[in-house]
Amino acid sequence: MTYLSKSGLGGLLAAGTLALATALPMKAQAETTYNLALLSDFSGPYADIMPILASSREVVFDWWNATSGKELGVKLNYKNYETRYDAAQVASLWPGIKSELAPIAVVGLGGPDVAALSERLPEDKIPMFMATAAYGFAWQPDSWIFNPRPTYAHEAAGFLAWMREQRGGDEPIKFAVLSSEASPAYVDMGKGLEVYAEEYPEAADLVEVIYTDVQPTDLTAQMRRVARSGAEAVIIQTNTSIVVAAKRGLQANGADIPIMMSSHNGLPASGKALGGLAQLEGDFEAYGMVIAADEDTEAQQFYQTLVSDYGLKAPWNVVTAMGISQALYTVAVIEHAIEENGAEGLTGELVREALFAKPITSEETHGFLPSLTFTPEAPFPLKGLKVNVGTVKDGKITIAATGVDVPDLSKW
């Protein structure tokens, strides 16, 4: 599924009548075009959700071209590249992508893109914008790869602080983490939450980090230990398979301990894997992005505009929200670069400089993201971090909290 968006250049027809000959000539506004490289996975592990994510990103670029881009005299062309979510494939494709498109930005998908391009993009001076949360091992200065969300550990820490406040009392909240050693990213989630518990002992008590298989068959014994420990929450930011096994293990032990998930393995995906959202009644998802619930929000209104006016076919869910939010902050940065440097001669380096020049406000992303302030110290904002919390109530996803503050964490 590789294609380049088409650019239609309008023209004005001049009439030859004597009356019109005396009128002032009309000129079409010159249009400057720039290219974006979109890294995608239509045949690998994310093939089932990629059509939704891809269309959600693309429609925002179409919307921007028809609105702000038209006013600025700029058009963004985009092209998807099939990476199969494989670092070797990304590395193999990159020289051709760079030669073919000379992109001013890359719109990435996940870890393989980071692994393949983290050392190449600084040399090529092309920034890459992600949709997901970040990782502690990527927490380096002078990055060219940027996440609108902090690390998964930051997001979980924000949720735990909120849950403790809802519970009340002075005791730290007890929690367990389920992860896997099969992926550095999964291991990182556990390490970050260990740092949180160490730095905030008065607020958080980590009872156990359980490392399991990526697709565990039975976690009944492990969940028995968690239940006996007095844990008040189980954090699972890995995948749906671990959520399913943990939920079955809790049910087998008669333990009513809420699970917190992230966006990629959140309530819709894990609920589907369990046979329905009702299986996750009272469980949570938390991340630094809008919750795609049925409630009337600014983000949902913007989504409806994309559906009605720009032909978006994707359902209103967390995957769609990830794609829209990723594209919105990408075009916001590009627009800042145009405002600062003009429409002509834009480069990837100027786009990256614009990222640091001023915040991306929540208004610019239509409420999909909190206001973001990037600095060269990290690939994600370090201050003003917020998470939103969703839950299942009466079989439906609802918003439990918005704008929850995220605790500061030391780099691990």
Provide a concise account of the structure shown.
With 412 residues, the chain is of the alpha/beta class. Helix content is 39%, strand content 17%.
Structure description:
It comes from Seohaeicola nanhaiensis. This is ABC transporter substrate-binding protein. Pfam families: Peripla_BP_6. The protein has 14 helices and twelve strands. The protein folds into two domains: about 210 residues, Rossmann fold (3-Layer(aba) Sandwich); about 160 residues, Rossmann fold, CATH 3.40.50.2300. About 40% of the residues lie in helices and about 15% in strands. Helix 2 packs parallel to helix 13. It has about 400 residues and is of the alpha/beta class. The two termini are about 40 Å apart.
Q: What is the correct CATH architecture of the largest domain? A: 3-Layer(aba) Sandwich
Discrete helix count: 14
Q: Helix coverage percent of residues?
A: 25-40%
Overall mean pLDDT? 92
Percentage of residues in strands: 15-25%
The CATH superfamily of the largest domain turns out to be Response regulator
Supply Rg: 23 Å
The strands making up the biggest β-sheet line up spatially as 7-6-8-9-10-11-12
Count the beta strands: 12
| SSE sequence, one letter per element | HEHHEHEHHEEHEHEHEHEHEHHHEE
User: What gap, in angstroms, lies between the N and C termini?
Assistant: 39 Å
Integer count of domains = 2
CATH topology of the largest domain: Rossmann fold
